[in-house]
Specification:
Layout lengths: L1 H29 L2 E8 L5 H11 L5 E7 L4 H8 L3 E6 L8 H11 L4 E6 L16 E7 L6 H4 L1 H6 L2 E5 L11 H11 L5 E3 L8 H16 L1
Parallel strand pairs: 1-4, 1-5, 2-3, 2-4, 5-6, 6-7
Helix pairs in contact: 1-4, 2-8
The structure holds guanosine-5'-triphosphate (GTP) and magnesium ion.
The site of guanosine-5'-triphosphate (GTP) has 17 residues, from helix 2.
């Protein structure tokens, strides 16, 4: 009996969140905003990847909502580069949800551009919650090991694009790329997997081209 009650509560939590997410998504679309939910483990390089991407998204207004449990280092860094960014601190919650995004979005006065939402560093919960995004970008890294698609399937299954970051470190690691790709493709047949390095700056032209194309499709 108590088990059934627990499932009902979770269903209503997801339902409420998803309804709010649909409203937020509609409002983003109406304002010409293409929203990217950036997910990945702590330290995967989410902020580093955003910096590389935003630098290359010339002639496009970029906005960032930064999610962290505590602290605002990433927001300060982005603001120091001239990026319009706002911080959300969840104070303990392991993912962002729609009400949090609704409030943060109001602070940014969003209009015509790309909004990156850096989710809490966590390879599990962010994948379960829609937050009004048009696409989900997963940052995976070679330092995490090639078995991650097998162990954390939902994030890989739901991703629209998978960035494999820190490839400059490949010579120093044991990372089985074939095994990684087999795991990814068992879950997700379509998402491009793009190898990048924020250190050498390789791979980002392809990421930016993908974002530009998706943004164009959303506008049509
Ligand atoms: N060698 C190497 N280091 C990287 C690369 N990308 C990021 N890093 C380093 O990884 C660390 C974490 O990078 P962040 O961009 O802060 O990662 P994050 O995912 O935003 O971290 P949280 O917001 O704390 O979850 C930093 O020390 C970066 O300099 C890369 O491609 N190669
Ligand atoms: Mg970060």
């Amino acid at each position: 009996m108590s088990e059934k009650k627990e499932i009902d509560i979770m269903e209503s939590v997801y339902d409420k969140n998803d309804k709010a997410a649909s409203q937020i998504n509609l409002s983003f679309t109406r304002n010409g905003i293409f929203a990217v939910n950036v997910m990945g483990a702590p330290g995967a390089g989410k902020t580093s990847v955003l910096i590389q991407v935003i630098r290359r998204l010339k002639n496009v207004a970029s906005y960032v909502i930064e999610g962290d449990i505590e602290a605002d280092f990433d927001t300060k860094l982005l603001k120091s580069m001239g990026v319009k960014a706002v911080q959300i601190n969840t104070g303990g919650a392991c993912h962002l949800d729609s009400p949090l995004i609704g409030k943060a979005a109001e602070e940014l006065s969003l209009k015509n551009g790309v909004l990156f939402i850096e989710n809490i560093g966590n390879l599990v919960c962010p994948a379960e919650f829609q937050i009004g995004e048009h696409v989900k970008m997963l940052i995976s890294t070679v330092t995490e090991g090639s078995d991650k698609p097998y162990k954390y399937p939902l994030a890989f299954e739901k991703a629209d694009i998978i960035i494999l970051n820190k490839c400059d470190l490949l010579p120093y690691l044991v990372f089985n790329e074939d095994f990684f790709m087999k795991g990814v493709r068992a879950l997700n047949k379509t998402a491009p997997v793009i190898k990048v390095s924020c250190k050498t700056e390789d791979g980002f032209e392809e990421v930016v081209e993908w974002i530009r194309n998706k943004q164009k499709l959303q506008k049509e």
